[in-house]
């Protein structure tokens, strides 16, 4: 249960050193990505000028304000409220994100499933759990929106955030098959019969 | 009492923003109750982060969650109220659009086929507007609910049959909570609709999920089921964010309607821990904002 300060980007060995139950704080750079972003990247052949190799992506679509570009807001967007969406919908994009873009960590809420676990194992990556629905707090970890690509998909653009002390995040899935979500899911499923019996349900 | 559309428009704008920033007191009390009895260390940390977030949002005048949701406005019209219904609906829509542009807010609403986002939080049939009539004198109330997608994507309907009895309802609720896992941003309010037609059953589930904590089903058998199901789902160990623990749900709420002799429908709709809700009450004395 170690804590890791990770200045992004990281290499494969660092990603593989993280274990379920560890905590992580990210520094420097984080990319924001969402359903439409990945549908366009992986189903519709779009490309990005961003190099995400070794980086972390967060499942997000932020609230922003359009402003005149300056040193504080180089992309012409001020971050208002940046939070995290449910990861599960984007399960099938984990492997292409890692294979084609070299992504090493996915920040999200609610967890991913078996195909993502396999991608983390094969390619060296982790899932970092943030507390969903706590966007006001999360926004205090964002210094600026440095750049944006695929902005016709706004708010589901590909965002480049400059971050500071982004976390602590909990390693929810690791590269050796560990998944806190699977553990909890299996334990909860094992309690189903007892819970239904407590409700007086016959022969569930 | 005559209601001016301009006042409804202003209130509809204000309500969307207020709902996104200030959590109702009953939900805050719900967090205190869950935290007091949580036995899991990770769950305690997760609940602590959620409570901190509420304070950060208030201190910084920021949104609690980035998901501005699908905007829902429930309109309750009392007795002795004179209002142009068509103008009222147009005013709500205009207020919702103004909140989105003027704050600004992320428009989370797209056309279901083209996926085009008009950046207004509005579209065909959205904002969702429900109008009902209540036995209150000289009163019109607007209740605004931004319904987040994490919880809404876990909505379920089962047209069970009479031979399956109440057991089918109980089993379905437990299985929906298990299937949802951490995707709904637990702890949630689990709304259960029982009876009616299929569409009414789903609407009842939504009404149940968005009811204030501490309120009970008006039907005695429904209220008893609420208590039993609340204890049951909190025995599953799903926990806050699906990371394990006791606090899976603030409560299970039940709303019911009579149904057909051949039917036994049950629907589940969940509200995430950011259970946002804001109200504006118009009386001859003016507008009063609340939850």
What do these coordinates show?
- The complex is a heterodimer of chains A (204) and B (291).
- Chain A is globular, with a radius of gyration of 18 Å.
- In chain A, 27% of the residues lie in helices and 30% in strands.
- Chain A contains 6 helices and 9 strands.
- The longest helix of chain A has 19 residues, at 180-198.
- Chain A has one domain (3-178): fumarase (Alpha-Beta Barrel).
- In chain A, helix 3 runs parallel beside helix 4 (114-123).
- In chain A, a hairpin with an 8-residue loop joins strand 8 and strand 9.
- Chain B has 291 residues and is of the alpha+beta class.
- Chain B has 2 domains: 5-20 and 64-148 and 276-290, 60s Ribosomal Protein L30, Chain: A; 150-271, no CATH class.
- Helix content of chain B is 39%, strand content 24%.
- Chain B is built from 8 helices and 9 strands.
- In chain B, helix 1 (5-21) packs across helix 4 and helix 2 (25-37) runs antiparallel to helix 3.
- The radius of gyration of chain B is 19 Å and the shape is globular.
- The chains are: A alpha/beta (204), B alpha+beta (291).
Low-confidence stretches of chain B: none
Determine the mean pLDDT of chain A. 97
Please give the count of helices of chain B. 8
Please, what is the oligomeric state? heterodimer
Sheet with most strands: strand arrangement of chain B: 2-1-3-8-9
Could you tell me the mean pLDDT of chain B?
A: 98
Structural class of chain B: alpha+beta
Instruction: Report the sheet with the most strands of chain A, covering strand number, pairing sense and barrel closure.
Output: 5 strands, mixed, barrel
Q: What name goes with the CATH superfamily of chain A?
A: Fe-S hydro-lyase, tartrate dehydratase beta-type, catalytic domain
CATH class of chain A: Alpha Beta
């Amino acid at each position: 249960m170690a804590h890791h300060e990770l200045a992004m980007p990281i290499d494969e060995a660092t990603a593989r050193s993280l274990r379920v139950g560890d905590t992580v704080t990210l520094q420097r750079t984080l990319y924001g990505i969402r359903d439409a972003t990945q549908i366009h990247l992986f189903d519709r052949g779009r490309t990005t000028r961003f190099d995400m190799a070794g980086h972390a992506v967060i499942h997000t679509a932020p609230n922003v304000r359009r402003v005149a570009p300056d040193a504080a807001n180089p992309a012409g967007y001020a971050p208002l409220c940046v939070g995290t969406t449910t990861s599960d919908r984007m399960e099938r994009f984990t492997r292409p994100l890692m294979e084609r873009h070299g992504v090493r960590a996915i920040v999200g809420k609610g967890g991913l499933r078996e195909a993502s676990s396999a991608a983390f194992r094969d390619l060296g990556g982790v899932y970092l759990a943030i507390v969903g629905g706590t966007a006001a707090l999360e926004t205090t970890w964002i210094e600026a929106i440095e750049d944006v690509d695929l902005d016709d998909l706004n708010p589901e653009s590909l965002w480049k955030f400059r971050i500071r002390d982004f976390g602590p995040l909990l390693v929810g899935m690791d590269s050796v098959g560990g998944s806190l979500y699977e553990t909890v899911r299996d334990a909860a499923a094992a309690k189903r019969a007892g819970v239904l019996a407590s409700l007086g349900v016959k022969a569930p | 009492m005559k209601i001016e559309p301009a006042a409804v428009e202003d209130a509809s704008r204000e309500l969307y923003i207020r709902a996104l920033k200030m959590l109702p007191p009953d939900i805050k009390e719900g967090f205190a109750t869950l935290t007091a009895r949580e036995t899991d260390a990770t769950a305690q940390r997760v609940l602590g982060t959620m409570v901190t977030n509420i304070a950060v949002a208030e201190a910084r005048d920021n949104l609690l969650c980035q998901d501005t949701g699908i905007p829902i406005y429930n309109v309750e019209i009392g007795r002795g109220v004179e209002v142009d219904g068509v103008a009222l609906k147009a005013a709500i829509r205009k207020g919702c659009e103004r909140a989105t542009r003027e704050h600004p807010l992320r428009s989370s609403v797209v056309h279901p086929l083209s996926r085009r986002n008009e950046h207004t939080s509005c579209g065909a049939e959205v904002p969702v507007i429900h109008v009902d009539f209540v036995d209150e004198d000289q009163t019109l109330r607007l209740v605004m609910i931004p319904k987040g997608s994490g919880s809404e994507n876990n909505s379920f309907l089962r047209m069970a049959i009479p031979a399956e009895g109440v057991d089918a309802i109980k089993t379905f609720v437990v299985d929906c909570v298990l299937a949802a896992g951490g995707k709904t941003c637990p702890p949630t309010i689990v709304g259960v609709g029982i009876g009616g037609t299929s569409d009414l059953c789903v609407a009842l589930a939504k009404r149940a999920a968005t009811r204030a904590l501490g309120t009970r089903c008006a039907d005695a058998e429904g209220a008893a089921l609420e208590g039993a199901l609340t204890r049951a789902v909190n025995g599953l160990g799903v926990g806050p964010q699906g990371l394990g623990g006791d606090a899976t749900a603030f409560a299970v709420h039940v709303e019911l309607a009579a149904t057909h002799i051949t039917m036994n429908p049950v629907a589940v709709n969940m509200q995430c821990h950011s259970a946002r809700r804001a109200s504006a009450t118009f009386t001859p004395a003016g507008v009063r904002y609340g939850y």
